[in-house]
Amino acid sequence: MSAKINVWSVVRGHLATMRHHTEGRVSIVDIAVFFVCPAFVAVVVYFACLPFNDGLVSALVNASAILLGLLLNLLVLMFDQKSKTADLLERLTEPSADPGRNQAPAAHQPVDRIKRLSLRATVISESVANISFSVLLCIASLLSLLAFSMRGSQLPVDRIESLAYGFNVFVWITVSFTILMVIKRVFVLFTTSP
């Protein structure tokens, strides 16, 4: 696979956010909520052999396209916030090169503000990983739905239809939970001062 389209680092980055920050260990609850529960529901849908009607396929394709645009805009916003946070951290941790400026040396900067900015930078980086992972899932859903809609219609529900339905159930539950997490993080970022 070309290194330009290898997305394993995005998946690894998202998985790295599934941990207890204070203890630095993997959060079993996060893994269960974000992956095990959606997989369980997807397996149930797969074995239920539910029909995947055209209206649902069309609605999911539209939702994927709209959500992709919104998530990509949110990535641009996060890049801007990361740049601002990095600039603030740099100004606080390095003494001013301009002798005319009245900036205190790095040793006199409030340690709490530097810690807050470092935590803010970490939350922004993790949010970028979560948003990027959601974008990948939306693309996967879009591709599977387009492939499914091109295969033609058959009256009985077959295993390919059940697989497509189950896969999309997994994707959309995971995307929904991930977006809820990102919304909470973005809300905290914008309601706390840097």
Overview of this structure, please?
The structure is a single chain. The protein is mainly alpha-helical and 194 residues long. Helices cover 74% and strands 2% of the residues. It is built from five helices and two strands, in the order αββαααα. It has a two-stranded antiparallel ribbon with strand order 1-2. α1 crosses α4, α3 packs antiparallel against α4 (111-150) and α4 (111-150) runs antiparallel to α5 (159-191).
How is the secondary structure organized here?
Blueprint lengths: L7 H9 L2 E2 L4 E2 L1 H21 L5 H40 L17 H40 L8 H33 L3
Antiparallel strand pairs: 1-2
Helix pairs in contact: 1-4, 2-5, 3-4, 4-5
Radius of gyration: 22 Å
Number of helices: 5
How are the strands of the largest sheet arranged? Answer: 1-2
The fraction of residues assigned to DSSP E strands is under 5%
Number of strands: 2
Mean pLDDT: 85
Determine the structural class based on helices, strands and strand pairing.
Answer: mainly alpha
Order of helices and strands: HEEHHHH
Residue runs with pLDDT of under 50 for 5 or more positions: none
